[in-house]
């Protein structure tokens, strides 16, 4: 069977044969379809990238219909069970699981780069006491670029390596500093004898004791959550990382942009929105009224639905199991019962079934964070920490991809045609109006 697509342009009657490569057609192949020499050629219109691949990638694979997620070919369930976050981060960045020597060197590099410059503390101190920690994180990550001017040498492999170490290592430090600042507590320095998750919990929660040791089940649960959130193909924040990275700034600036994209309630802010929604519902008997409101379009059931998964999100399955394990240690939450019941009702309701809306990664993750004593406004920050590994692997892949250029989408212009400027005295009085796109 020929791997090509025949397209007839009914405006001209001409037929074109477009090669199909890896299940895709090059959008630029449509440029040759013109009415005349003046015509720029046919554009492909795809707001929100619903069916457009912006890159080739060898990092993460998702089969949304079957609920499959692979990092570099390894199923997420197996990584969650057998790996740890640092090993998974190595896998994402390098493409293969490390051997013992490679892992030891990787762990060493990520451990020695956990400290931030002392000036970062004064920077942090400048924020208002109730500043959102995600805002603090994205600003301080952006500010890191000013501390490491050599990071702009993005085609120097050594510089890329050290930026990757620094970003993955310092993210928990900055995240914990943001939390401590909002509580008016002194900053805790990293403890390099602890695990990645254990050190983060220590920087968050250590008070006057000489050393903080997290409850092992909690440390493990956080590490698994980090694995589950480490990458997710071309999601909104990864797309931001690649798009901003395509103009070749340093990776700290590109990561700050990715954090900004993750901040929104439709992306990394969803787990915060889930908890607020469940708190608002309050009790199991209020669920039917809430679901009726969702079906009437009043609001969305947060933590449900996904652009890619049209089946149960495989990460949500692991997280749901883990929520039970963590709450067995920390004590149960009545809100979790409301969430479970809401899930059961939604999964049997025709509205959600027909739209293939299932719980996504955010539906249960917030309950684990809450059980760990982490306030809701820190939830997206907890997402940003591990996703940094994914962002950086995607950023490096994009930089080394010979087919990539500066990301610059096209548009379909629907505005005013060319017209002459009219002086102010001759303009008719008109109420200013905003014309929505589309
Ligand atoms: N609650 C109620 N209805 C929903 C929901 C939801 N959570 N999600 C989608 N729908 C409905 C839409 O109203 C639409 O219905 P219609 O066809 O009658 O108009 C249909 O399902 C398709 O929805 P879209 O908005 O086209 O789906 P899209 O792929 O653009 O959106 C998204 C995906 C943003 C995740 C959406 O499902 C949503 O808003 N979910 C809630 C927020 C959330 O949980 N985000 C976290 C995503 S995972 C992550 O980022 C880590």
UniProtKB/TrEMBL annotation:
Q: Where is the active site?
A: 306, 362
Q: Does the keyword Manganese apply?
A: no
Which terms in the GO cellular component ontology are assigned?
cytoplasm
InterPro entries in alphabetical order = Citrate_synth-like_lrg_a-sub, Citrate_synth-like_sm_a-sub, Citrate_synthase, Citrate_synthase_AS, Citrate_synthase_bac-typ, Citrate_synthase_sf, Citrate_synthase_typ-I
What keywords tag this UniProt record?
Acyltransferase, Transferase, Tricarboxylic acid cycle
This protein's pathway reads: Carbohydrate metabolism; tricarboxylic acid cycle; isocitrate from oxaloacetate: step 1/2
What Pfam families does the annotation carry?
A: Citrate_synt (PF00285)
Query: What's a Gene Ontology MF term here?
Result: citrate synthase activity
| One record GO biological process | tricarboxylic acid cycle
Q: Can you state which reaction this protein catalyses?
A: oxaloacetate + acetyl-CoA + H2O = citrate + CoA + H(+)
Q: Which residues form the signal peptide?
A: none
For this chain, the family text in UniProt reads: Belongs to the citrate synthase family.
Q: What is this protein called?
A: Citrate synthase
Organism, by scientific name, is Candidatus Aeolococcus gillhamiae
């Amino acid at each position: 069977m020929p791997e090509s697509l025949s397209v007839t342009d009914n405006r001209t009657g001409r037929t074109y044969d477009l090669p199909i490569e890896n299940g895709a057609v090059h959008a630029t192949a449509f440029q040759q379809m013109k009415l005349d020499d003046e015509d720029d050629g046919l554009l492909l219109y795809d707001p929100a990238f619903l069916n457009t691949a912006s890159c080739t990638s060898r990092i993460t694979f998702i089969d949304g219909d079957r609920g499959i997620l692979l990092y570099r070919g390894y199923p997420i369930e197996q990584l969650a069970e057998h790996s740890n976050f640092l090993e998974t981060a190595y896998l994402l960045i390098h493409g293969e699981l490390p051997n013992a020597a490679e892992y030891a060197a990787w762990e060493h590099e990520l451990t020695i780069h956990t400290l931030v410059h002392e000036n970062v503390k004064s920077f942090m101190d400048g924020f208002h006491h109730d500043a959102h920690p995600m805002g603090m994180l994205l600003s301080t990550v952006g500010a890191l670029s000013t501390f490491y001017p050599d990071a702009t040498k993005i085609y120097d492999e050594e510089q890329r390596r050290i930026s990757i170490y620094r970003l993955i290592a310092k993210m928990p430090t900055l995240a914990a500093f943001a939390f401590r600042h909002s509580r008016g507590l002194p900053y805790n320095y990293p403890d390099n004898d602890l695990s990645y998750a254990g050190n983060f919990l220590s920087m968050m929660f250590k008070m006057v004791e000489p050393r903080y040791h997290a409850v092992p089940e909690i440390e493990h649960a956080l590490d698994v959550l980090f694995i589950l959130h480490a990458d997710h193909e071309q999601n909104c924040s990864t797309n931001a990382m690649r798009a901003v990275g395509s103009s070749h700034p340093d990776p700290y600036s590109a990561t700050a942009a990715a954090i900004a994209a993750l901040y929104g309630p439709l992306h990394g802010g969803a787990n915060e929105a889930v908890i607020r929604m469940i708190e608002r519902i309050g009790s199991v008997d209020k669920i039917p009224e809430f679901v009726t409101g969702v079906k009437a379009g009043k609001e969305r059931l947060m933590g449900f639905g996904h652009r890619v998964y049209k089946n149960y999100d495989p990460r949500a399955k692991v997280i749901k199991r883990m929520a039970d394990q963590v709450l067995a240690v920390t004590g149960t939450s009545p809100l979790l019962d409301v969430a479970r019941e809401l899930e059961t009702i939604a999964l049997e309701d025709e509205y959600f079934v027909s739209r293939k809306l299932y719980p996504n990664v955010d539906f249960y993750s917030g309950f684990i964070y809450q059980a760990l004593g982490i306030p809701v406004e820190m939830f997206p920050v907890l997402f940003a920490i591990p996703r940094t590994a994914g962002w950086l692997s995607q950023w490096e892949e994009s930089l080394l991809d010979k087919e990539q250029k500066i990301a610059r989408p096209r548009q379909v212009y629907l505005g005013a045609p060319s017209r002459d400027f009219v002086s102010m005295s001759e303009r008719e009085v008109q109420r200013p109006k905003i014309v929505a796109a589309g």
